Amino acid sequence: MAAQSEEAAVKATIMTMFDGMRAGDSTMVHAAFGKNPVMKTIGRDRSTGKAKVIESGLDGFLKAVGTPHDAVWDEKVLSFEIKIDQEMATAWVPYEFYAGENFSHCGVNNFTLFKEEQGWKIIYLIDTRKQEGCK
Parallel, antiparallel, or unpaired: how do β-strands 81-85 and 73-77 relate? Predict the structure, then answer.
C-alpha cells in the first residue's frame, strides 16, 4: 500500500503542474518543481528536419503560463507509468495538448522527481512534440 500512496503523490505533483497550466497560474506550476530543474524538448530542426534537443528553462515556462492568453492550455494526460526507488521517481506520461478546443500536438513527457522534505518535486522534464501520428 505504501508504494501505491507514493505513486499517487508523484502523480499529484505532476497534475499540479498541469492544473496550473490550465488555470494560467504560474505560482501553482512553480510549486510542482524542485530547485534548478532541467527542462528540454526533443524537436525537429525546421530547415533540415533532423531531431534535436532544445533546452528551455523554468523561468520562461512560468512566464508563458502566467502571461494571459485567450485559450486554456489543456494538456490531457493519456496514461501514467510511474517507477519509484527511494527518493527518486520517473513518470512516462503520454499526452495531447489543446489550446482551448483546438488540438495543437501530442507526445510524451518524461519526468524525474525527487522526494524532498516538502514532498515530490519535478527536477527533470523532457518531452516530445508532434502533430502527426496522434490519437
Answer: unpaired
* pTM summary value: 0.93
CA dihedral in degrees (128, 83, 33, 116; nearest 10)? -160
Which residues, in sequence order, are CB contacts of 28 under 8 Å at separation 6+?
16, 17, 19, 20
Of the candidates 34, 4, 30, 3, the one whose C-alpha atom is nearest the C-alpha of residue 17 is 30
Closest to 37 in 3D by CA, of 58, 59, 6: 58
SS3 state of residue 94:
strand
Q: CATH number of the domain at 2-128, please? A: 3.10.450.50
- Is-contact 95 81, C-beta < 8 A? no
pLDDT single digits (tens) 14-71: 999 999 999 999 999 999 999 999 999 998 888 998 999 999 999 999 999 999 999 9
